[in-house]
Amino acid sequence: MRSVRRMIPFAAAAMLGTLGLLPLAPSAAASTWTTYPADCTETVIDNSSKSLTCTDRPANQTWRLVVLCYGAWVDLEGHGNIVTGNGTSTVVCPYSSRAYLGWFVYD
Question: Which tens digit of pLDDT belongs to each residue from 37-71?
């Protein structure tokens, strides 16, 4: 049987995170929610997809964009393509869910 997680609305999650009851950072080795390196720019493509373009990454650094995808029955992380050095990582959320919070992940 498949487990289904119920999503906590972002406002409640932010409040719980502020109170120290819910981690503010994602589970992967990453920065905090929606905090990107200074050389990176997030682009909202549409409701279900985002991209992150970085222009001053070290040539051998691998990274990607990860976003929280949410919808009526979905609460999961969407993982973008892995980029080495400069480039763009794009996430398209599945199941018609919406791309919400994003974070930068070093791979």
Answer: 999 999 999 999 999 999 999 999 999 999 999 98
Domains of the chain, each with CATH number or no CATH: 26-106 (2.60.40)
Distance CA(13)–CA(90), nearest Å, equals: 25
**Separation CA 40–CA 103 (nearest Å):** 11
Distances (CA, A) of 1 to 4, 21, 72, 95: 10, 29, 19, 19
Cβ atoms of 101 and 33 within 8 Å: the answer is yes
**Tokens at residue 99, please?**
């791309």
SS (H, E, C) the chain: CCCCCCCCCHHHHHHHHHCCCCCCCCCCCECCCCCCCCCEEEEEEECCEEEEEECCCCCCCEEEEEEEEECCCCEEEEECCCEECCEEEEEECCCCCEEEEEEEEEC
Biggest CA–CA distance in the chain, Å, is 45
